[in-house]
């Protein structure tokens, strides 16, 4: 039995096999066996695993990260914003792959600050370094020099599933019957718990609490061959949001879920190297030219033969996350084919048109409210000024995530400019309101600086529901827009007027593209049933089980992929 093999190996080297801490040292080993077993290991168990490996074991080099710690002690949480999910990057065909990967991760740092990792392929081996903290904390020259090779994948993490521990920092690397594979994931599987339970029933042993690990187990236990079809088979079991990059000894694979919740773009460097990234800002930094998005439901494979593409079952209407345009993505990125900057500027213009107010100055809650505030000011014909200064030097580790300290954190992070605010009727533009407590503190700051009136304008609709697709939002009960009317919120926040971007105006702005976006946190209508989370209003959901029926189907009409059920490798058409 595969599972008992693994259990025996582990227990022979650890007194507590159930707490097998493979990821603390970031080293991995793969063994060749005749079962569909997934092997994840650490340096402590290296010798034991070697002695039990029967055929040609292949090693993944141990590269412990010296700055790593076991847990995240704390991080700033004063913004009360939905948290960015994660950022992924993949590079194939550049001798500086891991260095470029670290730069690209730096460009994606806003998507996750808890941990970062890179896996590079060289000489038929996968090398891995990851750690807790910012990209610049985890990677220095000595670490990068230990990641040779011309292909690499990387990840920056904010945990939306799984605990904030080093063992959950991606990419994850594992060995299975036919080789080694690494994976980095942006999104959330809504059926993670049932998948994990099923895999554990069948003998799988999990090393992390991250939902991403199920992908590796699904690949290892798939009966399909070659590797590409194992990935497809694994993805057909997944429900929810996933933009994934995989790395093997000789291939880079990028996958986007059939609904396309999370972004994933493809670009190319002048030397022909292929790059995948969560946002185009990463391509820009490493001088890769944007080519296109990875389409919803598409699987793109890059290897020495070129680029191939096939698809999972595609959904007739993608459901791309509108919050990428509202808050997550950087304004200089192009996401889902649209400029984020342009979207935010228009959100501000709509607010000025729909909810005008007599005022002397327009200011922003920096940084994410700035572009919408510029749009508001231009449309209203009122000067935009910097009424709040954001400190970029507030430490991340001493602010405890308690309410008391969070109050303090707002003042640490934002300073009012009395010269701009005193005696003025102020419009302050923010990107969103989640719990509302930060907004009330910001209004108080502005009033204490002498503002005569404070009018709050929010560049998104009221958030009334949690996200199940890779964005960390509080429970529905904690969301102020779910608990209060706009008038009640105005009283709670202490402003003179409050207005949100109307959902119907947001949809009008998107025109024909409107049905291709997810608005679930504003509408409560979830395109994929959040089956493993408690919900109070199931009747509100738009039931859609298209992912249940995932299979390889011809979609000639799509034009970008040709594939048939029961596809074999030679039927996959290069693009
Ligand atoms: S629920 Fe909201 S945050 Fe989540 S994917 Fe949909 S639009 Fe984005």
Automatic annotation (TrEMBL):
Question: Short name of one Pfam family for this protein?
Answer: GATase_7
Return the PROSITE patterns for the record. Answer: GATASE_TYPE_2
Q: What is its EC number?
A: 2.4.2.14
Pathway involvement of the protein, from the record: Purine metabolism; IMP biosynthesis via de novo pathway; N(1)-(5-phospho-D-ribosyl)glycinamide from 5-phospho-alpha-D-ribose 1-diphosphate: step 1/2
One GO molecular function term of this record is: amidophosphoribosyltransferase activity
> What cofactor does its activity depend on?
[4Fe-4S] cluster
> Transmembrane ranges?
none
- Stretches assigned to the Glutamine amidotransferase type-2 domain: 86-305
Instruction: Cite a single GO BP annotation.
Output: purine nucleobase biosynthetic process
User: Keyword set for this entry?
Assistant: Glutamine amidotransferase, Glycosyltransferase, Iron, Iron-sulfur, Metal-binding, Purine biosynthesis, Transferase
Tagged with keyword Transmembrane helix:
no
Q: Which reaction does it catalyse?
A: 5-phospho-beta-D-ribosylamine + L-glutamate + diphosphate = 5-phospho-alpha-D-ribose 1-diphosphate + L-glutamine + H2O
Coiled-coil regions, chain positions: none
Entries under PANTHER family matching the protein: AMIDOPHOSPHORIBOSYLTRANSFERASE
Family, according to the entry, reads as follows: In the C-terminal section; belongs to the purine/pyrimidine phosphoribosyltransferase family.
Its recorded name reads: amidophosphoribosyltransferase
Q: Give the organism, scientific name.
A: Phaseolus vulgaris
Upper classification of the source organism reads: Eukaryota, Viridiplantae, Streptophyta, Embryophyta, Tracheophyta
């Amino acid at each position: 039995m595969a599972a008992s093999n693994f259990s025996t190996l582990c227990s022979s080297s650890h007194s507590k096999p159930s707490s097998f801490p493979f990821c603390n040292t970031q080293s991995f080993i793969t063994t060749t066996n005749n079962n569909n077993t997934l092997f994840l290991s650490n340096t402590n168990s290296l010798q034991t695993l070697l002695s039990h490996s029967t055929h040609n074991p292949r090693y993944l080099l141990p590269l412990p990260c010296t700055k790593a710690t076991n847990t995240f002690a704390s991080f700033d949480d004063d913004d009360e914003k939905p948290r960015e999910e994660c950022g992924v990057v993949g590079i194939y065909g550049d001798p500086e792959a891991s260095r470029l990967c670290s730069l690209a991760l730096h460009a994606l740092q806003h998507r996750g600050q808890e941990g970062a990792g890179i896996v590079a392929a060289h000489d038929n081996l996968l090398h891995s370094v990851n750690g807790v903290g910012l990209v610049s904390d985890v990677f220095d020259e000595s670490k990068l020099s230990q990641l040779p090779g011309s292909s690499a994948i990387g990840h920056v993490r904010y945990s939306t599933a799984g605990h904030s521990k080093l063992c959950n920092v991606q990419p994850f690397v594992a060995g299975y019957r036919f080789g080694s594979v690494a994976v980095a994931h942006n999104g959330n599987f809504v059926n993670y718990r049932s998948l994990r339970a099923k895999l554990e029933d069948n003998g799988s042993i999990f090393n992390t609490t991250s939902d991403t690990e199920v992908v590796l187990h699904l690949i290892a236990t798939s009966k399909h061959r070659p590797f590409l079809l194992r990935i497809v088979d694994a993805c057909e079991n997944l429900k929810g949001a996933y933009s994934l990059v995989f790395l093997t000894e000789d291939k880079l694979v990028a996958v986007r879920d059939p609904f396309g919740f999370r972004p994933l773009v493809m670009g190319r460097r002048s030397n022909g190297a292929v790059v995948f990234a969560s946002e185009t800002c990463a391509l820009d930094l490493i001088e890769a030219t944007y080519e296109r998005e990875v389409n919803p439901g598409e699987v793109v494979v890059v290897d020495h033969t070129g680029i191939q593409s096939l698809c999972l079952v595609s959904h007739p209407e993608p459901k791309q996350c509108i919050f990428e345009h509202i808050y997550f993505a950087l304004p200089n990125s192009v996401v889902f084919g649209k400029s984020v900057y342009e979207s935010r500027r228009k959100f501000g213009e709509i607010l000025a048109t729909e909810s005008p107010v007599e005022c002397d100055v327009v200011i922003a809650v920096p940084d994410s409210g700035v572009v919408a505030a510029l749009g508001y000011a231009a449309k209203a014909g009122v000067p935009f000024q910097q009424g709040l200064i954001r400190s970029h030097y507030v430490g991340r580790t001493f602010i405890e995530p308690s309410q008391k300290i969070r109050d303090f954190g707002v003042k640490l992070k934002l300073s009012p400019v009395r010269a701009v605010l005193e005696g003025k009727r102020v419009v302050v533009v923010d990107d969103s309101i989640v719990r509302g407590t930060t907004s009330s503190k910001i209004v108080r700051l502005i009033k204490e600086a002498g503002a005569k009136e404070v009018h709050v304008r929010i560049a998104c609709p009221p958030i009334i529901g949690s996200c199940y697709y890779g964005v960390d939002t509080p429970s529905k009960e904690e969301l102020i827009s779910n608990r209060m009317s706009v008038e009640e919120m105005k009283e709670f926040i202490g402003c003179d007027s409050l207005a949100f971007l109307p959902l119907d105006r947001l949809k009008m702005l998107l025109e024909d593209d409107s049905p291709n976006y997810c608005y679930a946190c504003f509408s409560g209508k979830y395109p994929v049933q959040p089956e493993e989370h408690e919900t109070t209003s199931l009747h509100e959901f738009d039931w859609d089980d298209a992912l249940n029926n995932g299979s390889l189907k011809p979609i000639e009409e799509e034009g970008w992929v040709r594939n048939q059920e029961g596809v074999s490798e030679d039927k996959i058409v290069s693009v």
